[in-house]
């Protein structure tokens, strides 16, 4: 065996036989997690998760760096470069399926927070605007969730005739509109407000109600229902009452 004057080869061989220090730290972290998962700070929980994705690397520096850059766990999982890793994509899909199952188990009005969580999980990371709709029956139970339109970085169009056609396909009585703002600001634009009011009016002859329009931002969501934006169209309530008093029924959709 050859050695240089500093014995470097021998030293490298010894180091090669030793386990990396982070493995012992990771094992202790795992034991703490199994004993009391809720007590781990965010960076350690993220470090543990990253260790599953990258088992041969020390993940503590990366966990701290990601949290510092994205401010929270939600920012890391919905806005970071981790979204390109298959393990994170798998995690997203599992969480999405669990949430939609929960939403289907009870009337939607009792699950509105879960709807927001689901929308944030599904759309919060998208680089372009997307319009999704929850189609509900008269008991406010979910019939179908569907992406009806995909747009650009800062706008997406939803045409009333397309919406009404889908409503009749699913025999929906109530709707929840959802779209995202890739800019991060969940507050509605003037176009968002005008579109929502136009859709409310267009759906009156079909006796279909918009229960909410939710906008998903980077770290927050905006609810038209909670902020009192629904039912504000001119003469909307009068039109509804007049139509109901006439005993109106659903008719075939017209092109608008």
Automatic annotation (TrEMBL):
Stored InterPro entries: MPN, RadC_JAB, UPF0758, UPF0758_CS
Keywords: Hydrolase, Metal-binding, Metalloprotease, Protease, Zinc
Ranges for domain MPN: 102-230
Phosphoprotein among keywords: no
Keyword Hydrolase: yes
Gene Ontology BP annotations: proteolysis
Molecular function via GO: metal ion binding; metallopeptidase activity
UniProt cross-references to Pfam families, sorted A to Z: RadC
PANTHER family: DNA REPAIR PROTEIN RADC (PTHR30471), UPF0758 PROTEIN YEES-RELATED (PTHR30471:SF3)
Family: Belongs to the UPF0758 family.
Protein name in UniProt: MPN domain-containing protein
Organism, scientific name: Holospora obtusa F1
